[in-house]
Amino acid sequence: MAETAKEIDRDKLLDIYTRTMKVNRTDEKFRELLMQGKVAVMYYCVRGQELVSAAAMAALEDDDYVVCTYRGQGEQTAKGIPIKKWWGECLGKATGTCKGKGGTMHITDPDTGIMVTTGVVGSGIPIANGLAMASQNNGDGRVTLVSFGDGAANIGGFHEAMNMAQLYKLPVVFLCQNNRYGEHTAFADHTDSPNIGERAAGYGMKGITVDGNDVNQIYPAMEEAVAHARRGKGPVLVEAMCYRMMGHFFGSDFSYMPEEHLAEMKAEDPLPKLRKVMLERQFTEEELDKIVADIDAEIDEAVQHALDAPLPDTDEIYKDVLEETA
Amino acid sequence: MGKITMTQALNLAIDEAMAEDDGVFCLGEDVSAKQGGGVFKVTSGLTEKYGENRIRATPISETAIIGAAVGAALAGQRPIAEIMLMNFVGVCMDQIVNHAAKLRFMSGGQTPCPIVIRTTTGVGVGFGGQHSDMLEAWFAHVAGMHVVTPSNAADARGLMRSAIDANDPVVFIENILCYGLESEDPGEGYRVPLGKAAVAKEGSDISLITYGRTVLDALEVAGEMEKEGVSVEVIDLRTIAPYDEETVLASVNKTGRAITLHEAVRPFGVGAEIAANIQEKCWDKLKGPVRRIGGTFSAVPFASHLEQAWIPQKSDIANQIKASVGKD
């Protein structure tokens, strides 16, 4: 683990907390709706990974690009996607970001920089290079961040993209959220090397493995990685160690997770740890509770809006295939 | 204006598009000046004009090449990505099919993906089983992209400009054996619209529907048939998908007979789709079944005489025409 001593600015800390709780409350609400049978869609839980997404998004500028995966709720909501449109899309409604045609696995909102959400493990990594290449070509100063899991580090596109990004010194940050499982397969059963971060060295790239459950580790690491990329120094691979505290997707069995792993992950839960840091930094219980209550109110309104929203017209199946059919 | 080869035509089209729009750039293996401007010299001389950022020589990484093109397109640029030989698309099909072709639709129209994927192939040069296939049917079967192939230098210039203009992915197939073909230069800014076929030769007895290199065979056989009193109309699709149904159906409604012809293998090919569509829509006008001619259903062989035997034969084209018109 990297040693980072720099204290996070208090406003930034509050920003990270707010983003973290947005991610968490959205996740809780989604699971509640699924449990109640109010919605029935594919959803990939992010419980345990909220802080990594929030810290990463807090390190970016508003107009930076993000590429994420089907387990991308964290990046999407933490980046600031309009949540009525987000819920609309997740529920397959006409009011969704993609008019209900993308769904939970393909959330796209260029206005907030959510450029691609891919349902194919690892496929976002080469695409992130292209967004960064455009920024390098036109000098717009943007950084592209692509988030993926430990499973994605074993697909060919990861290797091709790492090498190419370093070759061209592209302004891209590769964020590997090592949640210890690739779908249903434990890290040790799909990879024999101790971590992913060290692979960066093989490409001549800057790489770091960091505790994603500790805000004082993950945020400074993300901030430094983004700054490095923005300065034109090239890409950075950040491996954030975290836990996926649920199964691969909502409703999937995760009895394969051993007891000791569950205990370890509970002890490392980023939310109580973050709350503790907030209190140490003189935020009050009331302030923090108020933030969560406001988020909940906003989510409740957005969910109701999405539940009430119209379905997309059937004609939509013919639209947006090619420009001629737009 | 003088004559140009297909290689020159493609180079001129790319050059003028790059001069007009800073967002147009090329990437691919060996494309820059250091490597000689591409294995078939299509990007020759462009690095000197536009620099190495806009003529990016890449590692041998097809997935990273197409992925980068997709990302750059989402950011508003117009990448021209080269996949050196068409069989190598097997390495990057996920990026082409799951991403480039679908991002417009899946995003509800927010993220169109204007990329040109240039690729080369062709049977008859002794490249064997993994460097020769025509795989257009793979892409024609996927919604969300155009598939284009020129049969002559003038069309190559015009189709390439239109492909770069297009706001959707275009798979642009170049046949190795066609690079040296010469046409009158149609001049700067020339465009051939996507989705528009050409009647390469008018005729009244039978429609021979084809594209790419086999247009040359079709025209040669059609000329011979003329001497035997059979008038063959040759349709050069130019855009394979979505194809110009109007021109094809109008031709078949006129002649009442049709043969589809391509270098790609026959089963499940583009010809099968077109033949089925003709049967459905021209049934009342048809005087006989629509016939299909395509490559042999095996890997492309190496030995020259085997490779030549693999390709659709001109004699077979002639025989099928005669059989169709009742002269066999």
UniProtKB/TrEMBL annotation, chain A:
Keywords: Oxidoreductase, Thiamine pyrophosphate. Residues 19-312 form the Dehydrogenase E1 component domain. Its cofactor is thiamine diphosphate. It catalyses: N(6)-[(R)-lipoyl]-L-lysyl-[protein] + pyruvate + H(+) = N(6)-[(R)-S(8)-acetyldihydrolipoyl]-L-lysyl-[protein] + CO2. It comes from the Bacteria. InterPro entries: DH_E1 (IPR001017), PDH_E1_Alpha_Subunit (IPR050642), THDP-binding (IPR029061). PANTHER family: PYRUVATE DEHYDROGENASE E1 COMPONENT SUBUNIT ALPHA, PYRUVATE DEHYDROGENASE E1 COMPONENT, ALPHA SUBUNIT BACTERIAL AND ORGANELLAR. The pyruvate dehydrogenase complex catalyzes the overall conversion of pyruvate to acetyl-CoA and CO(2). It contains multiple copies of three enzymatic components: pyruvate dehydrogenase (E1), dihydrolipoamide acetyltransferase (E2) and lipoamide dehydrogenase (E3). This is Thiamine pyrophosphate-dependent dehydrogenase E1 component subunit alpha.
Automatic annotation (TrEMBL), chain B:
Residues 4-181 form the Transketolase-like pyrimidine-binding domain. SMART domains: Transket_pyr. Keywords: Oxidoreductase, Thiamine pyrophosphate. Its cofactor is thiamine diphosphate. The keyword Translocase does not apply. Coiled coil: none annotated. Pfam families: Transket_pyr, Transketolase_C. The keyword Transmembrane does not apply. This is Alpha-ketoacid dehydrogenase subunit beta. It comes from Erythrobacter rubeus.
